[in-house]
Amino acid sequence: MKKRVKVGKSRLDRFDFKSIKELKVAQMEKPELRESLKKDFTGTLESQGIVIDDDFKNRVHAKWRSTIKSDIRKVADENPASENWYLKRVLEQKPIKLNVSINKETGEKKKTLRRSQ
After folding, report:
1. Which residues of 105-116 are buried (b: 16+ CB within 10 A; e: fewer)?
2. Looking at the domain assignment, is residue 1 inside a domain?
3. What is the pTM of this model?
4. Looking at the domain assignment, is residue 4 inside a domain?
């Protein structure tokens, strides 16, 4: 299961991907581009020379993951003597496992950490 997180403007500002930066600059120069993106997103991107294929998606995904990893490294460097178990697991690239129990009557979910070594 993967956790879905909303991507806010502050996160996107830190994301450094060439095609996206070029599109932002083009929007600043041509305000009508913003409206055409709202009407036909895919067609407008293709007209700007941005083709969204598997290779593009993989590059964006890899860049996004590297941004997340650099954030985690920065936190770890700020607290080198930290005993944070979660942080250690992430830095060692080990999984964090959870036990989830669902109450059948209420549908309430309860998540607990499974600390296996």
Report:
1. eeeeeeeeeeee
2. no
3. 0.53
4. no
Give the amino acid at 114: R
- Closest by CA to 27, choosing from 18, 37, 14, is 37
Burial 56-94 (b: 16+ CB within 10 A, else e): eeeeeeeeeeeeeeeeeeeeeeeeeeeeeeeeeebeeee
Beta strands in the chain (DSSP E): 97-102, 109-114
Condensed to tens digits (0 to 9), the pLDDT of residues 28-67 reads 888 888 888 888 888 888 888 878 889 888 988 888 888 8
Domain that holds residue 16: 9-114
Domain count of the fold of the chain = 1
